[in-house]
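Quick one - inputs below.
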Amino acid sequence: MDRSIIHFNITDFAVAVERLCDSSLQRIPLIVASGEGVKARTLVFDMSEEAYQDGVRKGMRLSLARKYCRQARVIAPRPPLYRKAMTAIVKRVVPYTPLVEQGEEDGHLFLDVTGTHRLFGPAPDIAWRLRKEVQNDLGLDPVWSLASNKLVSKVASRMVRPFGEYIVGAGEEDTFLAPLPLSMLPGVTADEMHILEDFNVKWIGQLAQLSRKQLLVPFQRRGAYLYDASRGRDESGVCPGKIKNDRIVEEYIFEEDTGSYSEVRSALTRLVHEIGRVLRHKGIVGQRLGVCLSYGDGKKTCRSVSRKGGCDNDFILRNLALSVLDKAWGRRIRVRSCALICDRFLPRSQQQTLFVMQNRKELQQKKIITAMDMVNKQFGDGSIYLGTS
Amino acid sequence: MTNDKLCPVLIGTSGYSYTEWVDSGFYPQGTRTPGMLALYANVFPIVELNYTWYQMVRAEAISRMISKAPESFQFAAKLTRTLTHERDRNWQQELKLYREGIQPLRKQLAAILVQLPPDFDWSRKNRYYLAHLLDGLHGFPLAVEFRHISWSRDTVFAELEARRVTMVTVDAPSMPDLFPCLDIVTNPELFFVRFHGRNIQGWQSGNMQKKFDYSYSEEELNEWNQSHLTSLRRKAERGIVFFNNHVCAQAPENGRLLQTIIQKQIDG
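Output:
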């Protein structure tokens, strides 16, 4: 059976929610900018369509955005408010399907309504009804699209925003994507775009003409993704409850943008301890650790590493984090902040290994970590943590 | 009764791409959405496109769809909801997009169905809007389906007749404010019938699966043929009939039944 995946996208979500709360913000160019505490480095978090038309973009320095759109009103983001709005939307969607995947306060939702036709009718009707409910009850006007997978429904939403809807019939995925520029294809990095441009490949249809073997040479493992994506193939499921709670994120923002590797390394070590403490407190282990570096120009580099079986040991986590940092470190731009992300959790096994004895070093590390946790518990978080040398 | 002057009728269903029609046996097991139109065209000569109500028609999508059906196959396309039910956007711009999008269908287009919402009554504002809308669609074969009873008046029929616009004859549950079932032909070139089913409770439920969950019996269709269809066929050059009771593939089942009834009538 062909899947029916609906994608809802509330354009400029933060702006839409702010305008709902304050009607005086309607119809004026609006910029939501984060980092007001350090004004010189304030970045654009979201902007209204009017500001977008004037050239304002997400991640842009506020000082530059103001030059592009002088009449814009600037407000600080309120993430709890956006989370509340997302929760309200999900509440309306859940009666139609339990398979709802939501983004992080960004107004994006995927719904898998495959097989619900006997209860609620054809998928386009469900999408239309839901949009109407969200519009009538919450005053938000989502773009919606319907396709047989997440990738194509996401592209279809991009085609019609800020208003509208798009239905891509099953079996029409490749013909739908073919005339679109490569920039419309989700997940294609800037570096990959440059390589493809060197091959004079500018359209998704041109990319789809390349074989797996041809893509393997310049893109290695990523070639398989590009091969499938360009043909509109995406087998990934709609993962319910995929929200921030499913991962632990710790971030460190530098006082001044830094180009010093050792400074970033030192910050990461502190973050490792925070992550390890949370893991141990929850009685879980993380199987994947990611490092995300945010640069002064608003761009980000994210890399991750997996560890089968997971761990909650600060020493091991630190080694993993530093190895990921090596992979992420490369741009000659100053780093504004670094984030450490841990996910793919498993419950911590209470059983000791039966035959393989833990070595002395591991036992020592365990004792140190337990002692550090006790100190932190008694004197407050961050009282003691691992050093870098 | 003589059958000499009865015009031909094309029978079809409102929409063809329903997954539950595979479950119900109209399409063979394992049929995927892309293969449905070709299978449908083996049974019916015409279909009413529902999805054009949900989203603006796009020429490239229409072209892809046409290629899957025989050249003799006919389509009726619903007007997009932004021109009928949700008229808050710039409707002139929407109309322009619709006219452009529907172009590839022109040769096989039996009619554009302007289905108006139940709250669209015979007010001055609505009359002006409908007049402008019909002007904007001039040149296309048009059919208007009213849902509000206030449109049931001679001046409306006369205006549609003057414009050669078909007024849709509907079979629906008998309800106070609902437009009645009238076999008035306002366009001698074409009559247009829609069978919505007679599920009163479902109609009031707001749930599409309940609203159109109804199966016409042979007696009901025979009676309808005698009381309305034969009369319509005498007044027009040709007619199209759609069954909208899509739930559990009752629409194609009823469509085939009506085809048999009409064939029997022809055979005498």
